[in-house]
Amino acid sequence: MLKFLDISQDTTAFPWAKRTPYAGLPAVGTVAVALLIGYLAGHEAAGAIAAGAAYTIGFAVFHETLASRMLSMALATLGIASATLIGSIGADWTVAVLFVIAVAAVNYGLLTSISAAAGWIGQQCAIYVIVSSYFPLGLHFAVGRTAMVLLGGAMQMITYALTDLFQHRKDAGPVEPLAVRFPARIRELWEKLRHEVRITGDTASYTLRLAVTLLFSTAIYRHFHVRNGYWSPMTALLVLKPQWTATLSRGIARFLGTLAGAGVALVLAHTVSYSTPVVFALVVVCAWGCYALQAVNYAVFSLFTTLYIVFLFHFGGFSQTSAAHIRLFNTALGGAIALVMDSCWKLWPAKKVRVGNV
């Protein structure tokens, strides 16, 4: 029986012991540097793309693969850069977009069966495919956008490599050389992929459900030419979970957090003068809020994420007001599609899969 606590966990629970106010500080610094370089060079949009990639890769500190933060960052950087290039090249053709999004959904679904860190990398790759496939601006743009993603990821890796070096010197303990440690971790990861990827009934059901949901939400926004419609399948990707109650809980938290974030952005838009230094400071503060509260409460995390994206869009030429309205609409659409598809799957296809596995 559906219980209130089951569907409100992501909104009402606040385990403050899980807050991480310091772990993401180096990542915030890299985001700020990327934005500043873009602004000073006169290429604010490029700086925003690099900053966005640095922001994403910064979360690898919370998703270590085989106890190696640098390996997580390297794999995630290569993954999102490849996803950006493929998505951008195929953006002109809806059939191509649907194909690459289906592949990304299957990749994410299978990686979730390995570990949380592997699933996170697959999720970020899917997000970058979804976002980049919205912009049909040709090969030159695809290569340029991919280069900025690689640059942002590389900057974040350098930041944390220097942080690790400083920490090891401070601890004065023996350190295994990176040239030895890194290849060994890659071999371990390959063995893990070979032996631990298992397509069980639950994995297949979730992967198929995810693919169908992303394809449906993508087809809708492309057919109706919804502005910044990629937020719809992206939201569906983030809220859809293997368990229906988890999807409902995450969907509610995502919508409420986005609603609150959009409301705050709209209030600020009418009360604060949005000069570039002010927006720059708001981006940095909101990015820090995301890192600090990512494990505390998903609704609050969504609030800070919404504010971060709305303010970051300033460097891409969007007004904060229009960005807030567009994000709210597409978040509601994507969350609703995910919940409806998950409910339909629960009522019929999921039962069919269980019977077939008996």
Shape: globular
Helix percent band: over 70%
Beta-strand share of residues: under 5%
Task: Please tell me how large the radius of gyration is.
Answer: 20 Å
Key structural traits:
358 residues, mainly alpha, 2 domains, 15 helices, 78% helix, 0% strand, globular, disordered C terminus
Which helices and strands, and how do they pair?
Elements: H1 4-12, H2 25-40, H3 44-58, H4 69-89, H5 94-111, H6 116-132, H7 138-171, H8 178-196, H9 201-223, H10 231-239, H11 244-271, H12 276-293, H13 298-312, H14 320-347, H15 349-357
Helix pairs in contact: 1-11, 2-3, 2-7, 2-12, 3-7, 4-6, 4-7, 5-6, 5-9, 6-10, 9-10, 9-14, 10-11, 10-14, 11-13, 11-14, 12-13, 13-14
Summary of the model, kept short:
The chain has 358 residues and is mainly alpha-helical. The chain is built from 15 helices and no strands. Helices cover 78% and strands 0% of the residues.
Walk me through what this model shows:
The chain is mainly alpha-helical and 358 residues long. The chain folds into two domains: 19-198, no CATH class; 201-358, no CATH class. Helices cover 78% and strands 0% of the residues. The longest helix is centred in the middle third of the chain and has 34 residues, at 138-171. Mean pLDDT is 86; it is low at 349-358.
